[in-house]
Design goal:
hydrolase; 367 residues; 13 helices; 5-stranded mixed beta sheet; 39% helix; globular; hydrolase activity, acting on ester bonds; alpha/beta; lipid metabolism
Length: 367
């Protein structure tokens, strides 16, 4: 254990002392909030797809090569962004996947995220079973009923949930595995980018309102990152293998801008404290000056197949790159632990005015 901690300290030596202490467990107090509930896709899935007959699984090596205990279902080499956030919030343990959680575990929160999931029901269907946003919300509603039974009554549960953090990171697959995948979907022909973004926001609003109706009050809406800069899109559509795919990123910006407006809309509800994390901007910052953040390879996966190591995802037992701490991307789609630490840290405590609106997660937790 000591050697793994030393290795982690080496990889994240740039993290400020307090954050590093939180990661290593040398500074411990009560968590800043009683529970943390997570909704999303493969960027934050930590095992909910493991027992599905799905192509969207990561419960095999070399995934998890730097994670304690090895491959867990996380689509990266080590920590995800929500792992980082949970530690910075003061939780002793990582938030467990809903598929494995039961009883009192629900009281500290669970992770409902599912790889290949989208806002639209059909998104990601070519990869097999997954739990779309609607299904994740239904699972949360079931969890709330269990929490009411544990805590004794609805009022006690509602008061408890009002103090918890909820994070939603949905939408990447609706572009990656739907709108910009004409081989399997016709949404790109049926909708303009503006129409598609509005369709997504309309559905998203319904699901998030359900979370609010079931007790969510401190809610983090995480914007979609620069999907057009992923190794997979670079491999397919970038002439030089380095220039990001502009039409994909432009479409995503339309969605993100409407997500910001949604934050304002929800903050008019009684007791609501919604905020937006600008993952797109944080990625933009990384790509603008990666070396200042300890990264040197930003256009290819550490593990993968083909051009940019991005034409296929990381294969079982494939040998990944050795200098993982210098890579932005772990595979064709997903960031490395090194990148996730940067993104998670800036989500928790903003480093620029553009990182979060109207507040970062640290501030939200203190309300």
């Amino acid at each position: 254990m000591a050697s793994s901690r030393t290795e982690l300290m080496t990889r994240v030596c740039w993290v400020p002392l307090l954050a590093l202490a939180l990661f290593l467990g040398s500074v411990r107090s009560e968590p800043q909030v009683p529970c943390y509930f997570i909704f999303g896709d493969s960027l934050v899935d930590n095992g909910n797809n493991n027992d599905m007959a799905s192509l969207a699984r990561a419960n095999y090596p070399p995934y998890g090569i730097d994670f304690p205990g090895g491959s867990s279902g996380r689509f990266t080499n080590g920590l995800t962004t929500v792992d980082v956030i949970s530690k910075l919030l003061g939780f002793d343990n990582y938030i467990p996947p809903y598929a494995n959680a039961n009883g009192d575990q629900l009281l500290t929160g669970v992770n409902f995220a599912s790889a290949a999931a989208g806002i639209r029901e059909e998104t990601g269907q070519q990869l097999g079973p997954r739990i779309p946003f609607s299904g994740q919300v239904r699972n949360y509603q079931s969890a709330v009923q269990q929490m009411v039974n544990i805590l004794g009554d609805e009022d006690t549960a509602a008061n408890y949930l009002s103090k918890c953090i909820f994070s939603v990171g949905m939408g990447s697959n609706d572009y990656l595995n739907n709108y910009f995948m004409p081989m399997f979907y016709n949404s790109g022909q049926r909708y303009t980018p503006e129409q598609y973004a509005q369709d997504l926001i309309t559905r998203y609003t319904t699901f998030v309102r359900s979370l609010y109706d079931y007790g969510a009050r401190k809610v983090v809406l995480i914007g979609v990152g620069q999907v057009g800069c992923s190794p997979n899109e670079l491999a397919q559509h970038s002439a030089d293998g380095a220039t990001c795919v502009g039409n994909i990123n432009s479409a995503i910006e339309i969605f993100n801008n409407r997500l910001i407006s949604l934050v304002d809309q929800f903050n008019t509800l009684p007791g609501a404290h919604f905020t937006y994390i600008n993952a797109y901007h944080i990625f933009e910052d990384i790509l603008r000056d990666p070396r200042s953040m300890g990264l040197s390879v930003v256009n290819r996966g550490c593990c993968g197949v083909g051009r940019n190591n991005g034409q296929y995802t990381c294969l079982p037992y494939q040998i990944p790159c050795q200098n993982r701490e210098q890579y932005l991307f772990w595979d064709a789609f997903h960031p490395t632990e090194a990148a996730n630490i940067i993104i998670g840290k800036r989500s928790y405590q903003a480093q620029s005015d553009r990182d979060a609106y109207p507040m970062d997660i640290k501030t939200l937790a203190q309300i």
